[in-house]
Specification:
Distance between the termini of chain B: 19 Å
Largest sheet of chain A: 3 strands, antiparallel
CATH class of the largest domain in chain B: Mainly Alpha
Strand content of chain A: 5-15%
Distance between the termini of chain A: 19 Å
Strand order of the largest sheet of chain B: 4-3-5
Number of strands of chain A: 7
Shape of chain B: elongated
Oligomer: heterodimer
CATH topology of the largest domain in chain B: Butyryl-CoA Dehydrogenase, subunit A, domain 3
Structural class of chain A: alpha+beta
Number of strands of chain B: 5
Structural class of chain B: mainly alpha
Strand content of chain B: 5-15%
Shape of chain A: elongated
Number of domains of chain B: 2
CATH architecture of the largest domain in chain A: Up-down Bundle
Number of helices of chain B: 8
Number of helices of chain A: 7
Largest interface: A-B, 72 and 80 residues
Strand order of the largest sheet of chain A: 6-5-7
Radius of gyration of chain B: 23 Å
């Protein structure tokens, strides 16, 4: 491989801005500091306290909530004595059976598969790193996590649930189900795991663990 | 590196003979590879390019495709509501008008923003970025970077209407009383949203700064 690592001067690290390519000498950050690019304002580094442990805990919480959030009824509806309810899985199934498999695929990908894959990859990856082990799939797994990240849209789904509730209010009585609370927990844990994670720290850890 | 000097003669990773890995952000020495041979990051295994490969062409293709899909997405019905035997197919804008008629102004605003304003602004934004790089427009590079960040961040929120349709379709399947079904426009709309997300991702924002640096102004 003809790639050579850049030499690192002592004290400051050379970093390049991922958004404008400016080369900077950057000090190590501590505590909950954030470093921005001096030219375009992009976030270059975020140091979080116990970032990886917190992300591991939150991704574990999200995985636990995943099953109830997907299979338990989120909302139920009563019109003139007839009742029906909606689960995350059910909302996808109805699109497939209603003749919109493509829309069904998009919804299942953004609301179920991508969140599950990102949370799972994050949990497995961080758990291995914590144990100081480096299975071969680790770098690829974390890269996949980063690429799938923007397709997991649980917070958009949450707003869609609120819009649906309000839309139906004058038509029928809408009741909140247990699944809704599991879903809210899942969404918060999922977003939290993203927010606390310091990706640079993960890559440095992967480098340290895998080249040992 | 002094603040003033970096403003006058910005030293970028590219001009310094370095390259940043797109995926793990490791700074590597750039050795231009022998023709058409791919190089990979030693840390994460991602292919290394100084700038995203074929960024401008791919961004144009994805943006144009998204723009084309937006036409049927807005003309065909996105949802059909059957209530007490009366069917009512509505397009995106019909749905918004209906909500206003029912006095649900905040929800109408949310749907209007997510389904109509955002997709069109996103496509316009990406086209402006592409043209500004191509013609080296004298626009503030920092503002254009902000525009790109915004386009990337807001993209996902357009899926809102698709999710609402899925939820309503499942919730309201009460046989004779009422049903809600998706419409053909949902397919086009969903594809348009996903294509704009891919387009925003394909665009390499560093090209904005490359063009500005070459011109010697910002």
């Amino acid at each position: 491989m003809n790639t050579i690592e850049a030499k690192e001067p002592q004290g400051n690290d050379p970093v390049a801005c991922p958004q404008c390519d400016l080369l900077m000498a950057f000090p190590r950050l501590a505590g909950s500091q954030r470093g921005f690019c001096s030219r375009c304002g992009a976030v270059i580094r975020e140091a979080g306290t116990d970032s990886m442990d917190r992300a591991l805990a939150l991704s574990a919480a999200a995985l636990i909530l995943f099953i109830p959030a997907n299979f338990l009824p989120i909302l139920s509806l009563n019109i003139l004595g007839q009742a029906s309810d909606v689960t995350m899985i059910g909302a996808v199934k109805v699109l497939f059976s209603g003749g919109f498999p493509l829309v069904g695929l998009m919804v299942v990908f953004c609301s179920i598969l991508a969140p599950l894959a990102t949370t799972g990859l994050l949990f497995i990856g961080l758990a291995f790193l914590r144990a100081g082990r480096c299975p071969g799939f680790l770098p690829d797994g974390f890269r996949l996590y980063q690429h799938l990240d923007s397709w997991a849209m649980l917070e958009v789904y949450m707003i869609a649930l609120l819009v649906s509730i309000i839309k139906l209010l004058d038509m029928a009585r809408v009741e909140l189900g247990v699944g809704l609370f599991c879903f809210i927990g899942l969404m918060l844990a999922h977003i939290g795991s993203k927010a606390v994670l310091d990706r640079t720290a993960v890559w440095e850890k992967i480098e340290a663990v895998c080249t040992r | 590196m002094g603040e003033n000097r970096s403003r006058m003669h910005p030293i970028t990773a590219k001009t310094a003979g370095l390259v940043l890995c797109h995926d793990c952000r490791k700074l590597l020495r750039w050795i231009s590879p022998p023709k058409r041979e791919a190089r990979y990051c030693p840390r994460c295994g991602a292919p290394i390019h100084q700038r995203k490969y074929g960024s401008i062409g791919r961004t144009w293709a994805l943006t144009l495709a998204a723009g084309i899909f937006l036409v049927p997405a807005n003309l065909y019905p996105i949802m059909t509501v059957v209530y007490m035997g009366e069917g009512d197919a509505s397009t995106i804008i019909d749905g918004v008008l209906l909500l206003i008629q029912h006095g649900m102004i905040p929800i109408a605003l949310i749907i209007f923003t997510a389904s109509i304003v955002v997709p069109f602004l996103k496509i316009t934004g990406i086209v402006v970025l592409l043209l500004s790089v191509h013609f080296r427009w004298r626009l503030d590079a920092r503002q254009r970077t902000h525009l790109h960040r915004m386009v990337k961040w807001i993209g996902r929120w357009s899926m809102l209407d698709i999710f609402v349709i899925a939820i309503l379709a499942k919730l309201v399947e009460l046989g004779r009383i009422a049903t809600i079904e998706g419409g053909i426009a949902a397919v086009y709309f969903g594809l348009a949203v996903m294509l704009t997300m891919l387009a925003a991702e394909a665009f390499d924002e560093r090209l904005i700064w490359d063009a500005a640096d070459r011109k010697g102004d910002r």
